[in-house]
């Protein structure tokens, strides 16, 4: 399912226009993005938790050239931990 499919599913489920469903999804994604950019967790009961995780810097090997050792800098990434109910529904 992609964003367009999600828009259609929501508009059909609630009898709203596709334009309204797309606006709702846009606002939802924007709010999640803003919370994560501030370092906050986004907990959606019965679904899961989105959170910012830190990766430490580490030594790696350059994929080009002579495969010399390089330092991969520390970075932040986004993690998702599904709820127990979501995990059980996938089994």
Structure description:
It is a single chain. The chain has 91 residues and is an alpha+beta fold. It contains 3 helices and 5 strands. The strands form 2 sheets. It has a 3-stranded antiparallel β-sheet. Strand 1 and strand 2 (48-55) form a beta hairpin. It is elongated, with a radius of gyration of 19 Å. The model has no long low-confidence stretch (mean pLDDT 94).
Low-confidence stretches: none
Q: Output the strand order for the largest sheet.
A: 1-2-5
Strands, count: 5
Task: Give the terminus-to-terminus CA distance.
Answer: 19 Å
Tell me the Rg in angstroms. Answer: 19 Å
Helix content: 40-55%
Strand content: 25-35%
Write down the secondary-structure element order. HHEEEEEH
SS-derived structural category: alpha+beta
| SS field, number of helical segments | 3
**Major sheet description:** 3 strands, antiparallel
General shape: elongated
Q: On the 0-100 scale, what is the average pLDDT?
A: 94
């Amino acid at each position: 399912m992609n964003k367009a499919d999600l828009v259609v599913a929501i508009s059909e489920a609630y009898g709203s226009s596709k334009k309204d469903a797309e606006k709702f999804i846009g606002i939802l994604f924007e709010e999640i993005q803003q919370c994560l950019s501030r370092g906050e967790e986004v907990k959606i009961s019965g679904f899961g938790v989105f959170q910012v995780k830190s990766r430490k810097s580490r030594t790696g090997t350059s994929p080009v050239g002579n495969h010399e050792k390089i330092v991969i800098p520390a970075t932040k990434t986004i993690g998702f931990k599904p709820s127990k109910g979501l995990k059980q529904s996938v089994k």
